[in-house]
């Protein structure tokens, strides 16, 4: 197996999805019961309002959904046509944008409308999620946990019942780590937002900053953490 890029390693993925759990709890608890990343939840909540004919309550859920779609579109365009070669690493760029926005949120007054904060986080989170999609050979989602939970279940079943090979064990361990990260992040985010309010945004910002450091091109040793093999230094 070839060594993956640092942004495709398990430590980076774990940091990203733990921060995602924190952000979902942060916006849900502190910003009107709306999710920053879990668009499935927002869609369900939106449809419930429609079913109750509570049309005035639709916009807080619709706005982040549209913002998320816009973030995916922008990230995809930049990945396909990265500013004529000037954007050397879309993944690191999108992650840096998310960090900058969260720091901006930390310094904004709490009186700012909830919708602006949630839609902004949804936009930058969607860009990050579009760029970070793999751990080595495994596809994953860096902002939600449903698909990761499915991959864990199938990997565990293959490891214990069907194939019983190293690859299935790796899959089960990797995706269990991601699911545990999201759950622990959501718990920490909910508690921090309850006690510290607006300032709780520093927690996911710090985790994302750590992930960005691990993704820097000089951080070649991170590749060895993926498979435990020595890594030869290569040009980035």
Low-confidence stretches: 226-236
Give the overall shape: globular
Roughly what is the average pLDDT, rounded to an integer? 84
Structural class: mainly alpha
Q: What is the chain-wise order of helices and strands?
A: HHHHHEEHHHH
CATH architecture: Up-down Bundle
Estimated radius of gyration = 18 Å
- Tally of domains: 1
Q: Say how many strands there are.
A: 2
Summarize the amount of helix as a percent range.
55-70%
Strands across the major sheet, in which order? 1-2
Which terms would index this structure?
single chain, 236 residues, mainly alpha, Growth Hormone, Chain: A, two-stranded antiparallel ribbon
What's the short story on this structure?
The protein is mainly α and about 240 residues long.
What is this structure's SSE topology?
Blueprint: H1 10-30, H2 39-51, H3 59-80, H4 90-107, H5 114-131, E1 134-135, E2 138-139, H6 146-162, H7 166-196, H8 202-215, H9 224-227
Antiparallel strand pairs: 1-2
């Amino acid at each position: 197996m070839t060594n993956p890029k640092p942004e495709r390693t398990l430590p980076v993925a774990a940091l990203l999805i733990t921060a995602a759990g924190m952000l979902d709890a942060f916006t849900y608890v502190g910003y009107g019961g709306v999710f920053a990343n879990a668009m499935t939840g927002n869609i369900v909540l939106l449809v419930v309002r429609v079913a109750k004919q509570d049309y005035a309550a639709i916009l807080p859920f619709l706005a982040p959904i549209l913002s998320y779609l816009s973030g995916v579109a922008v990230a995809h365009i930049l990945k396909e046509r990265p500013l004529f070669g000037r954007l050397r690493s879309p993944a690191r760029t999108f992650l840096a944008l998310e960090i900058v926005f969260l720091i901006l949120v930390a310094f904004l007054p709490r009186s700012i409308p909830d919708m602006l904060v949630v839609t902004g986080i949804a936009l930058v989170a969607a860009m990050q999620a579009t760029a970070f999609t793999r751990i080595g050979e495994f596809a994953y989602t860096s902002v939600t946990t449903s698909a990761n939970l499915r991959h864990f279940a199938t990997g565990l079943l293959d490891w214990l019942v069907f194939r019983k090979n190293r690859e299935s064990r790796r899959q089960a361990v990797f995706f269990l780590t991601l699911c545990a990260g999201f759950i622990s992040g959501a718990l920490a985010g909910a508690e921090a937002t309850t006690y510290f309010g607006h300032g709780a945004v520093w927690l996911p910002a710090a985790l994302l900053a750590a992930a960005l450091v691990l993704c820097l091109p000089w951080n070649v040793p991170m590749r060895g953490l993926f498979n435990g093999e020595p890594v030869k230094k290569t040009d980035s």
